[in-house]
Hints:
It contains 9 helices and 7 strands, in the order E-H-E-E-H-E-H-H-H-H-H-H-E-H-E-E. With about 240 residues, it is an alpha+beta fold. Helix 3 crosses helix 7 (about 170-185).
Amino acid sequence: MARAKRHYIPGQVWHITHRCxxxxxxxKFVKDRKRWIQWLFESKRRYGLTILxxxxxxxxxxxxxxxxxxxxxxxxxxxxxxxxHAQEFNQRKKRKGAYxxxxxxxxxxxxxxxxxxxxxxxxxxMVRAGVVSHPSEWACGGYHEIKSPRRKCILIDYxxxxxxxxxxxxxxxxSLHRNLINNAIENDKNKREARWSQSIAVGExxxxxxxxxxxxxxxxxxxxxxxxxxxxxxxxxxAL
Length: 240
């Protein structure tokens, strides 16, 4: 299996996916999913990680972050969260071997409408899997915090989430987010889309082209491919 791609371009929103080793269901118990979230909070506290959304499933995680610190913020945060969680799990279960796939995948997401669609895609993960009928039924995701912001142990940067989504206030974002979630469920617009977890970048053509330009030699062999509502930067599928 090819190694997951991750790149550094300052100021970008990144959708990170990280899967358990061999897609095993190592996160099937609530206590383990909640422990991963606790380590995510510690990573935010320690490194200043800017979090926009997240969900912990039974065998992988989705994490939406902004790269607005130094280039090591995201790698250090992921290393701490994933590493400590795996270490605790293996010690408790007297288990040996890898817990995660060797690397996580990071996709650059354009702000505005594309970011909104990515947020909804993350929130509907377990609905898409057929486990629940609404994201409110899955405890281990950012949906609950978006709906009811916390006063302590805050993970999501509410102000930044609203601003990057193109909303003039958090209340406006909440209303828009709720409508998008309900519309997707009611109209069965919840299919799996590889763009969010397999591409290098997703957005309008100008955004995707700029990401390719900034990646320079690291983007060789990648093409800006049209989608029904935008573009993605990805390996040439016809050449695979």
